Amino acid sequence: MAKDLEISNIEKKFIFDLLASSQRLDGRKSLLEQRNLNIVITPNKFGDIYIEYKRLDGSIATRLHCKVTSEVVKPKAQRPFEGTFFINCEFNGLAGLNFENYKVGSNSDEFYYGRLIESMILRSNALDLEQLCIIAGLKVWNIRVDVHVLEFDGGFLELASIGCMTSLLHYRRPDVTVRNEKVTVHSFDEKEGVKLGVLHIPIALQFNLFQLKETAEIIKSNSSIENNELVALDCTLKEDLLKDGEFIIALNKNREIVQLNKPGGLPIAALKLIQFAHMALPIIEEITSKMLKAIEIDERQRNKYGHLLSAENDRYAG
Amino acid sequence: MSYSKYSILENHDGSCELSTQNSKVIVGISGPLEPKQRHRLPLQSAIEVIIKPSSGLGPTTREVLMQDKLATVLQAVIVTELYPRKLIQVNAQILESPFDEFGSMNGNTFNEITSSMIDLNSCFNSSFISLCDASIALKSSFVSSLLAITEENSSKLINLANVSDLDTLRSYNFKSLHLVVLEIEENKPTNILLLDSKGDFNDDDLVKVLDAAQQNTSAEFKNIRSLFKEKLSQDFIWKK
Q1: How many CB atoms within 10 Å of residue B145?
Q2: Residue B55 and residue A93: Cβ atoms within 8 Å?
Q3: Nearest to A67 among B55, B57, B91 (CB)
Q4: Are A248 and A268 spatial neighbours (Cβ–Cβ below 8 Å)?
Q5: Each residue of A26-55: pLDDT tens digit?
Q6: Of A230, A227, A234, which is closest to residue A248 (Cα–Cα)?
């Protein structure tokens, strides 16, 4: 049980050769092509989202379920004016038989990626925590996002960051009134829910690096490390196991870098950094507009009779 | 009525996503697998059940209790002697539960019991479809039903899987809740595999519950049969 996925040498070579000729195992024709992103928002719920990567043949490669829940808690002593925010992501047996159930310790991949997304959202102030304060030092909202992996074939970081941001944008917490330090939480029937304060939308993107020439060869021939790598986006699980390094960049569509991460692995030329940022920008822009569109469509369906109830006068252009 | 999709997880032998009017679970079953040393039983297969909660880290005590109940029934139904020294792994993830929202428990302790029973009921039905999808040998079929008696009207039984309006569900004042898993042989409900009752009830109530459970089981099983008919017609050698 929970046997690690092993790739034979022949398959390894095959995948490398494919990558070297700009082909992918699942039929994509370019190293920088991503699989089709699909965002499904559950109707009648807030912050409950299924997000999936689809292969070219339409089958689902990776599927995540993101769900936001909130509760009222006591704030941390050092930060009495701020709410709290957690991301909980965990791979278990459902994602595939190569993942262990009941694992202990926090050094696995998903913990690492989970912390990465959490710090991306928290440290860049993407989620306004001060808005979550009810009574300073006594009661604040705790927002938690649960990421459930339902199907897994690579691309976890991107999907999880898109899923977290979409569900945070979509979620509404119950409204509260405070009178004489007495807190009343209103149900959605009494008062409409309050949107979370999402100030900007950072999305993480992972560049996967594959080594072309052996390190020994480079030292022998005394050539530079430049252009010794293949860069691929959105790796499948098998490609992911073969990669020699990764470079993670989180951007928002305001052209700001939110987070950079290059945890060892294959060294890259310093100038590549800017190149990667430029490559990421149009992708992030496209994803952001896709997210906002999905939310807008959902909003329109929920608010079907909104225009009938509106007291706003007609506006005439010109 | 429940709605289910089967064979949706590629990484498992069998899977099913089952949604009732107020809950949704996904179950993936794989087996027979090579187990770890401690799971290895010399004459039969081990059954491992993992249920993950819809929010938060798990399985917590709430889910462990559900796991145990599910495992006892599976132990009785799966032909474990057929797969000695092997493991059958059942992974369930609860996706939607009617009491997920903040404050929906209303401070009513019975709601906590209701919520776990609703989840367990869906897990039972979903794991049956997954087991069949995984082609694991079964001694018999089973269907689970969740019935409730309220304080207001004790003569009327409520099938909780059919309550679509969440506010109604939360406003019920339950007297007792009964989870009945019935075995099905020759197309008819026969033995009780599991009966889990909570609350205050007498023997007349229980007889009523069993009667209603039999009816519900027959109706549900008819649905499952038509589901499998459709599945088989699309399977390899029967495909037209």
Answers
A1: 26
A2: no
A3: B55
A4: no
A5: 889 999 999 999 999 998 889 999 999 999
A6: A234
Q: Which two tokens stand for residue A258?
A: 């939110």
List residues bridging with B176 in a β-sheet.
Answer: B149, B199
Q: How far is the C-alpha of B68 from the C-alpha of A202, rounded, in Å? A: 42
* pLDDT tens-digit readout, A206-215: 999 998 877 6
Question: What is the sign, positive or negative, of the torsion defined by CA atoms of A149, A153, A157, A159?
Answer: negative
Separation CA A42–CA A47 (nearest Å): 8
Residue type at position A21: S
Give the number of residues written for chain A.
318
Put simply, whether B38 touches A (Cβ < 8 Å) is no
CATH superfamily of B2-239: GHMP Kinase, N-terminal domain (3.30.230.70)
- Among candidates A46, A68, A71, which has minimal Cα distance to A140? A71
pLDDT digits (tens, 9 = 90+) for B135-183: 999 999 999 999 999 988 888 899 988 888 888 888 888 899 999 999 9
Mutation choice for A interface testing from B22, B55, B57 by most A CBs within 10 A? B55
Angle at B136 between CA B89 and CA A50, to 5 degrees: 55
Record: contact A42-B96, CB cut-off 8 A:
yes
Residues 123-162, chain A, touching B (beta carbon < 8 A): 144, 146, 148, 150-152
Q: Which residues contact B216 (CB under 8 A, 6 or more apart)?
A: B143, B145, B147, B159
**What residues of B are in contact with residue A184 (Cβ under 8 Å)?**
none
The ipTM of this complex is 0.89
